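1st attempt posting a full record on here, be nice pls
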Amino acid sequence: MDDSFQRSLYSELDDLDYQIVCFLEENARTPFTQIAKELGVTEKTVRMRVQQMQEEGVLSLIGVVNPVKAGIRVETIIQLAVSGNYLDAVINTLQETPEVRLVILTSGEYQLLIQVFTRDNQEFSEFFMNKLNKIEGIIKSNVIMELKVLKSKFKFIR
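the predicted structure (as tokens):
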């Protein structure tokens, strides 16, 4: 994907903001003075632009944990069909469940898609049998075990 196409995906960012984000995405600990020098602007300009993007919710500077290095060996995607009257209650329960990393409202036969992280298959089995299967309102599930991650893109720019 060429840079002009990639840049067009982020049309809400002006060129300076885009360049700043590129630096921070590569290494969020890059000093603002270094970014400013590379871009030919003042450190204050970089600092203010980053602060504005954070306040607007465009940019978050966070640490990302590698699940495998943290002991998570089983990542599972589960599609859930939920009885219409229970959708809000099921969502609330899933949001409070520690093993559930992601909850997405979807269209089609399954109303929800969740991602579950567990240390091993035994822990997943216990989660599935003792937690997920006991949530009232779930009428059908489709469990998709991740066998191998072929691409995991944390970088959104470039």
